[in-house]
Amino acid sequence: MKHAWTRRGLCALGALLCAGALHAAGLQVTDDRGVTVSLAQSPQRIVSLLPSLTETVCELGQCHRLVGVDRYSNHPASVRKLPQTGGGIDPNIEAIVALRPDVVLMAASSRGVQRLESLGLKVLAMEPKSSADAKRVMGKLGQLLEVPDAERIWRAIDAGVMAAAQSLPASARSLRVYYEVSTGGYAAGTQSFIGEMMARLGVQNIVRPELGPFPRINPEYVVRENPDLIMIGSRNVQGMETRPGWRGMRALREQRVCVFTPEESDVLVRPGPRMAEAARIMARCIAAQGLR
User: With b meaning 16 or more CB within 10 Å and e meaning fewer, what string describes 75-109?
Assistant: First the structure.
């Protein structure tokens, strides 16, 4: 009996030591810079400075951990009540530090990354630009937040995109589309997540692949390509018909222009958990062209 209790005691001690070792190891997540961020435990206080990251945290069921967001994060509605800490280009460093975050989520291209790290804050820099990036980021945040079913959530999003594609007739494949993302003529290229979604929906993007994911397009280029359909946000549409040569393009002559509301544009330009909704918005636009 004495030996049995000794064995049990050793087993219990071993379990405690293993648990202690795991706790000591904590969490390690490698961001888009290749920097490995180490945390003693899953963060409970998070500042997010990119809308797609904010939405992903909430989609993972962890909205309650957010203590601050950037000025553009507006979904879900609950995040609008949180303190705003500037934007990716101009983060309010003092406001972020005052919130005492365990980790700051932000774009890899943000100016504030090194400044925040120099002040001793943990920064996880991630910037999804493609569908694969969005999937990877969801997995990384699932790891960070210890949410085990991130992969299942992504599969549901992907299935939603597929369903939107299947709702369209085969004739949609002949449709040549120009998608203008923002003012100044910045378009969605084939390598962007928007361009990838256009491809999954079966339409043809007039922007050539070699131009990159979000190139600035000369208005004359669009005239030469003469798209069948233009997709554009209401923020950018003003003055579109006065651009040189545009009035004579097929899309404008036949009034094949989808003008997205600001709310719809927010969904469409964020590579995150609302991508299935984005696919449905785009599919409705395509279906409205009366294709058979």
Answer: beeebeebeebbbbeebbbeebbebebbbbbbbbe
